[in-house]
Every structure is written in C-alpha cells, then in structure tokens.
Design goal:
Elements: E1 14-19, H1 28-41, E2 46-50, E3 55-60, H2 64-73, H3 80-87, E4 111-114, E5 123-124, H4 129-141, H5 153-157, E6 159-160, E7 167-173, E8 181-182, H6 184-193, E9 199-202, E10 206-212, H7 216-228, E11 236-237
Antiparallel strand pairs: 1-3, 2-3, 4-7, 5-6, 7-10, 8-11, 9-10
Helix pairs in contact: 1-6
Protein name: CASTOR ACT domain-containing protein
Pfam families: ACT_7
Domain CASTOR ACT: 10-73, 165-223
C-alpha cells in the first residue's frame, strides 16, 4: 500500500454492528433514521451501509460497548452468543451521555451531485443456498467447471431482486473528511424518510443516498433546501 500516496486512514479501529430487520429493504429509510438518530444525539460518529439483505453500522471500537448499551436501552435486541464471543462478559465501562455541553456545532458547506448511472439491488436467494454455495465453491476451487459461454439457468436462479426499484445516487461531498463528526447520517436521512424510502452508503469522503429514480426530483429538492438552510448545523464532533 506504500504506492497509494493519497490514501488516508483512521487511527481508530471500527467494529461492525449487523442490523437485521423483518421490514427488509422496504423499511430501510425508517431504519436508517431510527438507528442513526439516537446515536447522533449521544455523539457517536458512525459509518452506515445499507445492503440488499441487511445493514451495517460501523462504530469505533473504543465506544462499542457504549453504543450497545444505548441501543439496548431503546429495546434493540442483540445476539448474545455473538456478543459473548467477541466482547466477553464485561459490562460497558461507562454510560452514554447526550449532552451538547462543550461541543460546538460545525457550520460547513456541503455540495451534492447526482451520479448518472441507475442502480438495482441484487442479492443471493436464501431459498437456493445450496445452489449458490456450490457455485461459489466452483468459482474458488474448480473454475474449469463454470460454463464459459455465460450463466446457466441454475446460475441465473441463485440471484433475486424482488422487483427492486431502479435507484439513483445523490452523492454529498463531505469536505474535510473529519471522521470524528457525528450526526451526518441522521441529518441527511431524517428529512428524506418523511417522503420516501432510501438506502445509504457511507464512505470516507462522501454520503451516498440511494433513492428510487421516481423520487429523485423530490429528493434533490429536499436536500437542496436543507443544505441551503444549513442542514448539518447539528453535526458535532465526537468527544
């Protein structure tokens, strides 16, 4: 990696909380806002990544137990066996505070653009797990068994899209790339979820909001209005 002179990295280690919800992709926007809201108010800097079948929330390892404690207080359930495997049985070392005292809001200008490509979510069909598991095994160990002329009917069937809508990506440029900022996910998702569903992908330098192509105009209108009014003035630095 020494050849990547422009590469930047965080000094913090991040841990991943996997979010499984029976609402599925149809309730992804509300889920993003509901989870990121209390974390923002408690001053957690997070990355949020929506996927086809689940969501991932990345929090700093040093505050992982605090985040778990907060979400438990809000009646989120955790896989106790997984927690025991990765965290041991130690209780959180300190409580979560949501006070703004001593933290100044950040007033910044954020630019947005709409990416030209349309996207569609595709995932592996859980009902055909044995089929696609065998395909993955072939790809990794026996590539000569893969049909050279294209996908077979069985290979096509391992994917499903459940009539996923065509998505357009609104990319918000997060100038400064300060990984200690918290509240960005919530500030962007909150005004949109009142009007439409969405997916969200955090990156080091941008927030990528995926909305249905039919909702693009309304989403741009909402974001432009909020950006001009200082939508992210509630964004603060994580203590």
């Amino acid at each position: 990696m020494t050849g990547c002179h422009d590469m930047r990295f965080s000094n913090d280690v991040y841990r991943v909380l996997q979010v499984d919800d029976e609402g599925g992709q149809g309730a992804s926007g509300k889920r993003i806002s509901d989870i990121s809201g209390p974390l923002a108010q408690a001053k957690f800097s997070i990355f949020y990544m929506s996927t086809y079948q689940t969501d991932f929330v990345l929090v700093k390892e040093r505050r992982l137990l605090q985040a778990i404690e907060l979400l438990r207080e809000l009646n989120y359930e955790f896989d106790q066996e997984a927690l025991n495997d990765h965290l041991g049985h130690s209780p959180p070392s300190s409580s979560v505070h949501s006070s703004n005292e001593g933290i100044e809001p950040m007033h910044e200008n954020f630019e947005k653009c709409v990416l030209t490509d349309e996207l569609q979510c595709v995932g592996l069909n859980p009902h055909l797990k044995s089929d696609w598991a065998m395909t993955v095994l072939k790809i990794l160990s026996y590539p000569e068994l893969i049909s050279p002329g294209g996908k077979s009917d069985s290979e096509e069937s391992i994917f499903q899209d459940e009539d996923s809508p065509r998505y357009r990506v609104i990319q918000v440029n997060l100038a400064g790339s300060n990984l200690d900022r918290c509240g960005i996910v919530w500030s962007i998702s909150r005004p949109l979820t009142a009007h439409m569903n969405l997916l969200y992908l955090s990156t080091f330098k941008s927030a990528n909001v995926l909305v249905s192509a039919d909702d693009l105009g309304k989403a741009e209108e909402i974001l432009m209005s909020d950006l001009q009014k200082g939508m992210l003035t509630e964004v603060v630095l994580e203590p």
